[in-house]
Amino acid sequence: MLIGLTGQIGAGKTTVANILRGLGAVIIDADRIGREVLADNPAVKRALVRAFGSEVADKRGRINRRAVAGAAFASDSSRRKLNQIVHPHLLKELHRQVKERTNCGKIIVIDAALLLEWKLDHTVDAVIVVRAPAIVRLNRMVARRFDRADIRRRMHLQLRWPEYRRRADVIITNNGNSAELRRQVVATWNCLREQL
Hints:
Helix content is 57%, strand content 12%.
């Protein structure tokens, strides 16, 4: 069974993925794949420097992810430019990992903030959306040392909540109560296992 896991920035998607991993799910982490593409793909590095300037790379040519994000989330056109450079490589590797694990006999979860934008909701068996109020999401990201204005820009560029709700099969609410969050995730997991 292939599950998509998504949610708006700061909702707690990674926390939910970690709980699911502990319950026995195989997690395919799109963020991790993206980091590997930025670190290991010379063509991507060159394209990012051409698109966003030399300040997105250090003297050794390593990409500074925060600098790239700052440049890319400055506008819709910059974000589209970043996506055109990185996403083809990221999605190729993501699909390879899904294919590799398809017959493992376990529930496979694609943990991806852009799951809906990539239209992967059409290829998975169910979509789990993690939800949290905007102020809670903002405060979580600020606590992780992200710039408040940068987070607001990112929030503005994401899909609106009604679109997540419309395309979700399961909604998990994460208001900061870890016991309640775990209860919801375990209940969802039990329902998924019954469908195996």
